[in-house]
Amino acid sequence: MGQKVNPIGFRLSVRRNWRARWYARKKEFAPQLKEDIDIRTFLEKRLRTASVPHVFIERASNRIRVTIYTARPGMVIGRRGQDLERMKADLNKKIGKDIILEVQEIKKPDLVARLVAENVALQLERRISFRRAMKRAVQTTMAMGAEGIRIQVSGRLGGSDIARTEQQRNGRVPLHTLRENIDYGFAEAQTVYGKIGIKCWLCLKAEDMQF
């Protein structure tokens, strides 16, 4: 009956790994989880235009190692690493712990679902037709070697009074097969008519898994 499950959470420990690696006792768990959420929220706001789909967090004693996966490492690092150092200082001040920031480049951004969804959102904000934006994303991703893609946009599409949902798909996207390498991403476009949500599912080959 249409019960939706996040494809990444559905495949945890089978095909996917957790996005944080640490262990805590019962009393320490909630504060450390709150720290993880604060770190991710801070980085998402700061690096909104830097194509960052994924942040990985590791802990060892009182140190936190944060790996930022990005398609534009130059925007994150800045000239001579100044932006990265400034961001590290702000994050240390906010969290109150020693944080090590690392940057990892994504070689194929067209094969990351979150980045594909963000690209469509960016085009919708520039008032490009949603059908054209979806079609272009589907063609580019399939040309890069994906086995299948499905994109869904919801909201006041084209400024219509009644919100609706439209989708395009190509290739195979078997969401019920746990062993398949399915990537899922979500983004929002802030348009004049309101928010438009974009969901993207990709079926990738095993070697195309980038994190």
From TrEMBL:
Write out the entry's keywords from A to Z: Ribonucleoprotein, Ribosomal protein, RNA-binding, rRNA-binding
Keyword Electron transport part of the UniProt annotation: no
Which GO MF terms does the UniProt record name?
mRNA binding; rRNA binding; structural constituent of ribosome
Question: Does this entry carry the keyword Transmembrane helix?
Answer: no
| Lineage top rank: taxon | Bacteria
User: Which terms does the UniProt entry file under GO BP?
Assistant: translation
Q: Name one GO cellular component term.
A: cytosolic small ribosomal subunit
Give one Pfam family. KH_2
Instruction: Give all residue intervals belonging to the KH type-2 domain.
Output: 39-107
The record's NCBIfam families line, in alphabetical order, gives:
rpsC_bact
Q: How does it assemble?
A: Part of the 30S ribosomal subunit. Forms a tight complex with proteins S10 and S14.
Q: Give the protein family.
A: Belongs to the universal ribosomal protein uS3 family.
Primary role: Binds the lower part of the 30S subunit head. Binds mRNA in the 70S ribosome, positioning it for translation.
Q: Which PANTHER family match?
A: 30S/40S RIBOSOMAL PROTEIN S3 (PTHR11760), SMALL RIBOSOMAL SUBUNIT PROTEIN US3C (PTHR11760:SF19)
Protein name, entry field: Small ribosomal subunit protein uS3
Which gene does this sequence derive from? rpsC
